[in-house]
Write a structure and sequence with these properties.
This protein is an alpha/beta fold. It has helices at about 25-30, 65-70, 90-95, 135-150, 170, and strands spanning about 10-15, 30-35, 75-80, 100-110, 110-115, 120-130, 155-160. The protein has one domain (about 10-170): Rossmann fold (3-Layer(aba) Sandwich). About 25% of the residues lie in helices and about 30% in strands. A hairpin with a 2-residue loop joins strand 4 and strand 5. It is globular and about 45 Å long.
Length: about 170
Amino acid sequence: MHIERKEEYYVKLILHDLGEAFAELLTRKSDHMINANGKYAPCQGCFSCWTKHPAECFMKDELQQACRRLGQADELIIITKNLYGGYSTPVKNVLDRAIGTSTPFSTYRGRQMHHTLRYGRKGLWKVIVYGDITEDERTTFTYLAERNAVNEGYERSEAVFLDDIARLEAVL
Protein backbone atom coordinates (compact mmCIF):
# COMPACT_ATOMS: atom_id res chain seq x y z
CA MET A 1 0.00 0.00 0.00
CA HIS A 2 1.40 3.38 -1.06
CA ILE A 3 0.79 6.33 1.29
CA GLU A 4 1.42 9.79 -0.08
CA ARG A 5 3.08 12.18 2.29
CA LYS A 6 1.35 15.49 2.66
CA GLU A 7 3.68 18.23 1.51
CA GLU A 8 4.23 20.91 4.14
CA TYR A 9 2.77 24.28 3.32
CA TYR A 10 4.75 27.27 4.55
CA VAL A 11 2.88 30.56 4.87
CA LYS A 12 4.90 33.76 4.64
CA LEU A 13 2.66 36.80 5.15
CA ILE A 14 3.65 40.43 4.66
CA LEU A 15 1.73 43.12 6.56
CA HIS A 16 2.69 46.54 5.28
CA ASP A 17 1.76 50.22 5.15
CA LEU A 18 3.52 51.00 1.86
CA GLY A 19 0.42 51.36 -0.32
CA GLU A 20 0.59 50.29 -3.94
CA ALA A 21 4.06 51.71 -4.65
CA PHE A 22 5.78 48.45 -3.68
CA ALA A 23 3.00 46.03 -4.69
CA GLU A 24 4.99 44.29 -7.43
CA LEU A 25 8.04 43.76 -5.21
CA LEU A 26 5.98 42.47 -2.29
CA THR A 27 3.98 40.13 -4.53
CA ARG A 28 7.24 38.58 -5.74
CA LYS A 29 8.37 38.01 -2.15
CA SER A 30 5.16 36.52 -0.73
CA ASP A 31 1.85 35.04 -1.85
CA HIS A 32 0.06 36.35 1.21
CA MET A 33 -0.28 40.02 1.99
CA ILE A 34 -2.26 42.48 4.07
CA ASN A 35 -2.07 46.09 2.95
CA ALA A 36 -2.59 48.30 6.00
CA ASN A 37 -4.24 50.99 3.92
CA GLY A 38 -6.57 52.32 6.62
CA LYS A 39 -9.72 51.44 4.65
CA TYR A 40 -11.24 49.57 7.58
CA ALA A 41 -12.67 50.25 11.01
CA PRO A 42 -10.46 50.13 14.09
CA CYS A 43 -10.98 47.38 16.67
CA GLN A 44 -14.09 47.97 18.78
CA GLY A 45 -12.78 45.94 21.72
CA CYS A 46 -15.87 43.70 21.79
CA PHE A 47 -13.82 40.46 22.02
CA SER A 48 -16.27 38.65 19.71
CA CYS A 49 -13.27 37.29 17.79
CA TRP A 50 -12.26 35.60 21.04
CA THR A 51 -15.60 34.27 22.18
CA LYS A 52 -18.62 34.45 19.86
CA HIS A 53 -16.97 33.99 16.46
CA PRO A 54 -13.47 32.60 17.09
CA ALA A 55 -10.82 34.21 14.87
CA GLU A 56 -13.39 36.21 12.89
CA CYS A 57 -14.23 39.87 13.40
CA PHE A 58 -17.89 40.83 13.41
CA MET A 59 -17.14 43.86 11.22
CA LYS A 60 -17.71 43.08 7.56
CA ASP A 61 -14.69 44.70 5.95
CA GLU A 62 -11.37 43.58 4.48
CA LEU A 63 -10.00 42.71 7.93
CA GLN A 64 -12.84 40.38 8.91
CA GLN A 65 -10.52 37.37 8.40
CA ALA A 66 -7.32 39.10 9.62
CA CYS A 67 -7.13 36.85 12.70
CA ARG A 68 -7.09 33.73 10.58
CA ARG A 69 -4.70 35.12 8.01
CA LEU A 70 -2.20 36.34 10.60
CA GLY A 71 -2.69 33.30 12.82
CA GLN A 72 -1.87 30.86 10.05
CA ALA A 73 1.36 32.64 9.06
CA ASP A 74 4.52 30.68 9.79
CA GLU A 75 6.55 33.79 9.06
CA LEU A 76 5.17 37.30 9.52
CA ILE A 77 7.00 40.24 8.02
CA ILE A 78 5.71 43.61 9.15
CA ILE A 79 6.83 46.64 7.15
CA THR A 80 5.99 49.83 9.00
CA LYS A 81 6.90 53.45 9.19
CA ASN A 82 8.39 54.38 12.56
CA LEU A 83 5.95 56.15 14.86
CA TYR A 84 7.84 57.12 18.03
CA GLY A 85 9.39 53.66 18.36
CA GLY A 86 6.19 51.80 17.47
CA TYR A 87 4.11 50.62 14.55
CA SER A 88 2.41 53.08 12.22
CA THR A 89 -1.27 53.68 12.98
CA PRO A 90 -2.59 51.58 10.06
CA VAL A 91 -0.33 48.61 10.97
CA LYS A 92 -1.25 48.87 14.67
CA ASN A 93 -4.94 48.86 13.73
CA VAL A 94 -4.49 45.59 11.80
CA LEU A 95 -2.62 44.01 14.72
CA ASP A 96 -5.37 45.16 17.10
CA ARG A 97 -8.01 43.56 14.88
CA ALA A 98 -6.07 40.27 15.04
CA ILE A 99 -6.40 39.66 18.79
CA GLY A 100 -8.38 36.52 17.92
CA THR A 101 -5.15 34.74 16.91
CA SER A 102 -5.11 33.69 20.55
CA THR A 103 -7.85 32.57 22.92
CA PRO A 104 -9.03 34.28 26.13
CA PHE A 105 -7.45 31.44 28.13
CA SER A 106 -3.97 31.72 29.62
CA THR A 107 -0.95 29.47 29.79
CA TYR A 108 2.73 29.67 30.67
CA ARG A 109 5.25 30.05 27.85
CA GLY A 110 8.85 30.74 28.75
CA ARG A 111 7.92 30.99 32.45
CA GLN A 112 5.56 33.87 31.66
CA MET A 113 1.79 34.07 31.44
CA HIS A 114 0.43 34.46 27.88
CA HIS A 115 -2.83 33.78 26.10
CA THR A 116 -3.25 30.30 24.66
CA LEU A 117 -2.40 30.19 20.96
CA ARG A 118 -5.24 29.36 18.59
CA TYR A 119 -2.90 28.37 15.73
CA GLY A 120 0.17 26.95 17.48
CA ARG A 121 3.83 27.91 17.37
CA LYS A 122 5.38 29.75 14.44
CA GLY A 123 8.78 30.70 13.03
CA LEU A 124 9.81 34.31 12.51
CA TRP A 125 8.22 37.65 13.51
CA LYS A 126 10.21 40.17 11.47
CA VAL A 127 9.68 43.91 11.60
CA ILE A 128 11.17 46.16 8.93
CA VAL A 129 11.08 49.77 10.07
CA TYR A 130 11.59 52.73 7.77
CA GLY A 131 11.70 56.48 8.32
CA ASP A 132 13.58 58.67 10.75
CA ILE A 133 14.38 56.82 13.95
CA THR A 134 16.47 57.67 16.99
CA GLU A 135 18.66 55.20 18.85
CA ASP A 136 16.16 55.10 21.74
CA GLU A 137 13.34 54.34 19.29
CA ARG A 138 15.41 51.51 17.79
CA THR A 139 15.84 50.02 21.25
CA THR A 140 12.11 50.35 21.94
CA PHE A 141 11.17 48.81 18.59
CA THR A 142 13.55 45.89 19.02
CA TYR A 143 12.07 45.14 22.43
CA LEU A 144 8.51 45.55 21.08
CA ALA A 145 9.21 43.06 18.28
CA GLU A 146 10.69 40.56 20.77
CA ARG A 147 7.71 40.79 23.12
CA ASN A 148 5.13 40.65 20.30
CA ALA A 149 6.85 37.54 18.93
CA VAL A 150 6.70 35.77 22.29
CA ASN A 151 3.08 36.76 22.85
CA GLU A 152 2.01 35.57 19.40
CA GLY A 153 3.92 32.28 19.64
CA TYR A 154 6.83 32.99 17.30
CA GLU A 155 10.12 31.25 18.01
CA ARG A 156 12.26 34.24 17.08
CA SER A 157 12.06 37.90 16.20
CA GLU A 158 14.08 40.30 14.13
CA ALA A 159 13.98 44.08 13.78
CA VAL A 160 15.56 45.68 10.71
CA PHE A 161 15.89 49.44 10.31
CA LEU A 162 16.07 51.10 6.90
CA ASP A 163 17.33 54.62 6.41
CA ASP A 164 16.29 54.34 2.77
CA ILE A 165 13.14 52.41 1.77
CA ALA A 166 14.77 51.73 -1.63
CA ARG A 167 16.86 49.08 0.20
CA LEU A 168 13.70 47.11 1.08
CA GLU A 169 14.28 44.29 -1.41
CA ALA A 170 17.66 43.48 0.14
CA VAL A 171 16.14 42.79 3.59
CA LEU A 172 13.06 40.85 2.47
